[in-house]
Design brief:
9-stranded antiparallel sheet, two-stranded antiparallel sheet, mainly beta, elongated
Length: 291
Amino acid sequence: MATRSIRQTAFLDANWADLGKGNAGQQLVQRFGRNAATTFIGHLGTAKYDSLQARLQRRFRGGYQMQLSYTWAHSLGYTAENSTSAPRVNHPAYWDKNYGPTPLDIRHNVVISGVLELPFGKGKRWAQDGFAAALLGGWQINALSRLSTGTPVTPTAPATTLNAPGSGQFADCLGPVVKIGQRTLWWDRTNLANPNAVDPNTPRFGTCGTGVLRGPGLINVDMGVFRRFQISERVNVQLRGEAFNISNTPHFANPNADVSSGNFGLIGNVQNTGREGNDQRLFRIGVRIGF
C-alpha cells in the first residue's frame, strides 16, 4: 500500500529570521515591527507512506481462531502526519532540513491474536452434560500481542549560535550513533556534537538529519479469561477477567535527544498506547449480561 499527501498542509511561521540575524532579522520585525511568532496555514512538500501488509488467518472453527498480521512501513515527510503540525525549520531556504522519517515510520509491526474455547460443556467434544459440563463448560481464553520497532528521533541542540527565530537546531552527526539500549543511556553520544561548541562563531544548522535515531520498540501482551453462563434461552451472563501488559514489560517513550543536556539518552516517560496511561500490568474484572 502506498499513499501520497501532495502539498502537505502545515502550520508555518511567517516571522522567521535568517541564520545569525536574531530577533532583529525576523521578517515581520523588519517590515512592521512585529516580533511575535505569526502562524499561517501553508503547504510543505509531499508526504509519503509505503507499506507491505500481510495477514495469516485461521477463521473460527473447532473452538478456536488465530490471526497474525505483519506490516513493514516507511513514512517520509516534512512534518508529522496531522495537518496541524509545524516544521522544525521555518526558513524557506532550509525547508529540506525538515524532510525525514515521520512518527508513522514504524518499520516493523507484528500483531498476533487468538481465541480459544475450551472443549467442554454442551455442544462441545467432552463433558457435554452433568457436573463436569457445569464446572468446565463455557470457558474462553483470549490473547492479543503486539511487537513493533521504535519511532524516529531527531538529535537536537540549543539554537544559541544559530540565532534564527522560527527554526530549531540540529546536533552534529560525526559518524554512526551506537544504540546502548539502557533506560538511563539509550545511545552513545560519542559521535554526536553540539554545533555551538564546534563552531561558536558560525551560525549554521547541525549536520544531523531529521529522524536519524530510533527510540525503543514496543512489546505488549494482553490476555483474558471469560466464563459464560446460559441463564435462559435469551439471557446469558459472562464473567470477564482481563490482564493488560501481563508481562509488565515497560513501554518506554523516546529518550531525551538534546546533546547539550546532562540527561541525553535518558528515558523519563512511557509511551501513550491509548490506555489512559495505565501501561503497567493491570487486571480488570467485569460482568457482561446479554439478552
